[in-house]
Design a protein that fits this description.
Helices cover 23% and strands 30% of the residues. By secondary structure, it is an alpha+beta fold. It is globular.
């Protein structure tokens, strides 16, 4: 039998084989592209997670998962040329050097913030604080008899940054006026000499509590302030003292005022203090404050700035170590000091 020609069939088979080969190559290329894309997506996800962990800290929650408990912010090592400006306005053993800080340190809030409650910052170098504090107390048993008492204080202060207002670098003005009113549970019904309402005392009247000029020098390493001051605004301060309203600790431990003539808020006398920072954590602090019994009269309003009646000065000294979250994972305060009383004590 004569064999039929197979040319057309052979060519069709070859063509189909080539097409299958191309299809397989295309599938291989697509599989390769999918694998590369998957690897790229995995790499992107890992990098994103690492970046989020670096920014938010270990244990940062991912969307769709249950958020973890709040953690303290990650503290980066301080730069070698970091100034001490970050600590200069802190309310620690370093004391307070602002009108707003003075109100804060004397019991307006148990948890200090960047700006104390009631502060209005105009953004041009002027900031104002208007604050009202009230304290009520009751004596259900014990003491001379039972009763209740209410006392309060209005405080209005201004801080002026003269660097922004007048070009005086490092200079500032501070003023604070207070008005106290009400009754003392300790005086009226308990009969003890340490008030259970720290906002009571110093005369239930209106007075100028603070009027001072402050100058910071040498990249904020030396801080000088003088004018009408109260010693315990600058010394004997801590943000933990006023978690309770009892005057045994808030705004400063009272033993210093019972053993010496150390001056106290809201009564102001002539005074000055200087604080030298050896680093962003270690400082030495010294001051001198007039002792004048006339300023403690119930009718005193803080306007009589004469030194008539002055009996001497008190000289507080302090060596301290203080940190915050900017330079320490666990902020702390340590201090050792003394009060030299060169006035009459009765």
């Amino acid at each position: 039998m004569e064999r039929l020609p197979q040319t057309g069939i052979t060519e069709d088979a070859r063509t189909m084989t080539k097409q299958r080969t191309k299809i397989r190559r295309g599938e291989d290329q697509m599989n390769f592209a999918y694998r590369v894309g998957a690897i790229g997506l995995c790499t992107f996800a890992i990098c994103t997670a690492l970046q989020a962990q670096e920014v938010d800290g270990p244990g940062a929650s991912v969307q769709g998962t249950r958020p973890q408990a709040a953690r303290r912010p990650i503290v980066r090592p301080a730069a070698a040329n970091r100034t001490v400006a970050d600590n200069s306005d802190e309310t620690g053993f370093a004391g307070s050097d602002r009108a707003a800080g003075a109100v804060e340190s004397q019991g307006q809030s148990g948890t200090p913030t960047t700006l104390p409650p009631g502060t209005l910052d105009l953004g041009n170098g002027l900031s104002f604080i208007l604050n009202y504090t009230s304290e009520s107390a009751a004596n259900p048993f014990g003491g001379i008899r039972q009763g209740t008492a209410y006392t309060g204080q209005v405080a209005f202060g201004i801080d002026a940054d003269l660097g922004r207002l007048a070009g005086i670098e490092g200079g500032s003005l501070h003023t604070l006026v207070t008005q106290r009113h009400g009754r003392s549970l300790s005086n009226d019904v308990i009969g003890n000499n340490t008030s259970v309402q720290e906002i009571y005392g110093g005369g239930q009247t209106a007075r100028i509590t603070l009027l001072s000029y402050q100058q910071k020098l040498f990249d904020n390493r030396l801080d000088i302030e003088f004018g009408r001051l109260a010693g315990n605004i600058n010394f004997l301060s801590s943000p933990v003292y006023c978690n309770f309203q009892n005057n045994a600790t808030c705004g400063s431990p009272t033993f210093a005022f019972k053993n010496t003539n150390f001056t106290y808020y809201p009564i102001s006398t002539w005074g000055a203090h200087a604080k030298a920072w050896f680093s962003d954590k270690v400082f030495f602090h010294a001051g001198a404050y007039e002792v004048n019994p006339n300023t403690q009269r119930l009718t005193d309003n803080g306007i009589d700035w004469s030194t008539r009646g002055a009996t001497g000065v008190v000289l507080p000294l302090e060596l301290g170590y203080t940190t915050n979250f900017a330079n320490d994972l666990m902020p702390r305060n340590y201090g050792i000091g003394a009060v030299i009383d060169r006035s009459d004590y009765a």
